[in-house]
What does this fold into?
Amino acid sequence: MIESNKKGSNIALIDAEKTVLAIAMHSPKACFEIMSQLQKEDFFIHEHSLVFNAINDLSTDSKNITLTNLIDKLESSNKLKEVGGIEYLSNILSFFVTDEGFEDYVELVFKNSIGRRLDRELENIKKLRETNTPIEEVFLLTQQRILDIKTDIHKDEATEIKETIIQVIKKIEQLEKNGDLINGVPSGFSELDQMTNGWQNGDFIILAARPSMGKTAFALNLALNAALYNKGVAFFSLEMPKEQLVQRILSAKSKVSSSTLKTAQGITPELWKRIFASGEEIKNMNIIIDDSPGLNVLQLQSKLRKMKRDFNIDICIIDYLQLISSISTRFESRQNEVAAISRQLKKIARELDMPIICLSQLSRRVETREQKVPIMSDLRDSGAIEQDADIIMFLYREAYYDNKDIVYDNSSQTDETDVIISKHRNGPTGTIKINFMRDYGKFQDQIKK
It folds into this structure.
């Protein structure tokens, strides 16, 4: 019975493939769509892939798709006999009735193609396991190849400008009606949001600073602020365990010093009240933390895709770039490897249509200069980061250098901090001044006088 069902399914697929080819041969408009949405490898029957390829060649050469031209094309490449001759081509042509609803046939062909590719990968896994290939290598190779399988049919992204201008004007009208509306994910800092209009979908954002400038604290503040606006946040911490991260979030939210939370000494009833109240708020936030050490870029991509599906994630924050590894060993230097990872992160941001904020280290040469304000050439490991990023911002606290050897006893001590936007592909650059409450790891807007 199962064999019978499978045979019937194959007959339906073969007929669908013939219908797609027949429509491509009869309808110029549908032909363009079919050629852009399918590839010859998507066809189950070898002869059909050859016919598809011949039609595609004729279309590329701007020739009419006629039976005569198709025969000539296949004959010139010695493929006519291989496809079954004129008789089989005539049989394919007989499947044309109308081009209406051709998209359903295209989707059927494409979905079956995905199934066959997945089956091939399962066979590859079996073969790798039989050769005693290390399980880690099997997993990484399989993950990469499965992620490369496109599950959505390709749609032509070229659009007439008249369609896009309508969308642009509608967005401007919406912004005018809602003067305070941020159409991206809010950062929670008023001047920064004015400059960026919120973190935009598809943007790859670099946040860089020297150690102890507060990179992780600022990133946690961005996560906390986004969650307060009911945005879903994925936070990948490759350096710090999730318990420490959540403790720092609790400190920033409750304004109870991190040292008090670490030692649990001197907690008054009032402080406990703030801790519990903040804990209840944090419990209801959509922040997903992954603290897996040694993540490679493919694992990160896979996890983020699953998080977006399961937890409705709007923004991703990664701490930090130089701790991400690639699965390839072919790179001649770490600089080239970081460049490849940077390009992949930008690609992931575009594919998942969300902003990705990635923390990055700066080289030590900042410390050797008299003027220690960071610049883009200070980005560690790769100049390619500078090219890939849509926004590059630096944190700089002058007080860190002025008072590096001073131990503060005053829990209310705050440092003025510069958020320096050095690159902004779609907007202005400049410096925003905010305050950093070091004991709480909390950043906040400066009060305007």
The two ends are 81 Å apart (CA to CA).
